[in-house]
């Protein structure tokens, strides 16, 4: 058995400096400076998380068509549904179709807003954003793609 060289990053070496030899120290030699930097970063992340939480709590989207206006919260709950006077003359099938159309539009908008808020915390390529996208229906994903394309083309309404 060989004896490790003095100062080698080996758990068996009693002379190894666990802080100095740790790969996660970020190039900082002084543990108190590293800890202060770490705590400052943690405070910044906590503030970003609180801001995201507040933005999510305040998030809602309103969409409308000729029969109704729907408001949806961040988690997909319908918080308000108002029928227009023209809804009185509509058939049940027309109202059902109008409702489903609005629900998909509102869910698309709410999901896109959620993704924007969450990407401020985790970055745009984080796998958790994919999990959010995967959690919505195919219809909502299709509407999100249409909305993204319309936004890229300079049409903020999403109408295509």
Characterise this structure.
- By secondary structure, the chain is mainly alpha-helical.
- About 50% of the residues lie in helices and about 10% in strands.
- The protein has four helices and three strands.
- Strand 1 (about 60-65) and strand 2 form a beta hairpin.
- It is elongated and about 85 Å long.
- The mean pLDDT is about 85.
What is this entry, summarized?
The chain is mostly helical. Helix content is 51%, strand content 11%. β1 (60-64) and β2 (68-73) form a beta hairpin.
Keyword list:
mainly alpha, 3 strands, elongated, 160 residues
Helix fraction, binned, reads: 40-55%
SSE order in H/E notation? HEEEHHH
β-strand percent reads: 5-15%
Taking all Cα atoms into account, the compactness measure Rg is 26 Å
* Major sheet: 3 strands, antiparallel
How is the largest sheet built, in terms of strand order? 1-2-3
Q: Tell me the structural class.
A: mainly alpha
Shape: elongated
Rounded to the nearest angstrom, the distance between the terminal CA atoms is: 74 Å
Number of strands: 3
Number of helix segments?
A: 4
The poorly predicted ranges are none
User: Mean of the pLDDT scores?
Assistant: 84
């Amino acid at each position: 058995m060989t004896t490790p060289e003095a100062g080698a990053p080996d758990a068996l070496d009693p002379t190894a400096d666990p802080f100095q030899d740790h790969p996660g120290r970020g190039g900082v030699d002084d543990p108190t400076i590293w800890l202060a930097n770490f705590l400052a970063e943690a405070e910044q992340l906590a503030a970003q998380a609180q801001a995201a939480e507040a933005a999510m709590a305040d998030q809602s989207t309103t969409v409308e068509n000729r029969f109704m206006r729907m408001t949806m919260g961040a988690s997909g709950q319908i918080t308000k549904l108002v029928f227009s006077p023209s809804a009185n003359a509509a058939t049940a099938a027309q109202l059902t179709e109008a409702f489903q159309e609005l629900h998909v539009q509102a869910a698309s908008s709410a999901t896109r807003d959620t993704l924007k808020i969450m990407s401020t915390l985790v970055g745009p390529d984080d796998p958790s954003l994919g999990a959010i996208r995967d959690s919505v229906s195919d219809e909502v994903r299709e509407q999100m793609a249409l909305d993204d394309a319309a936004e890229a083309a300079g049409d903020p309404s999403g109408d295509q």
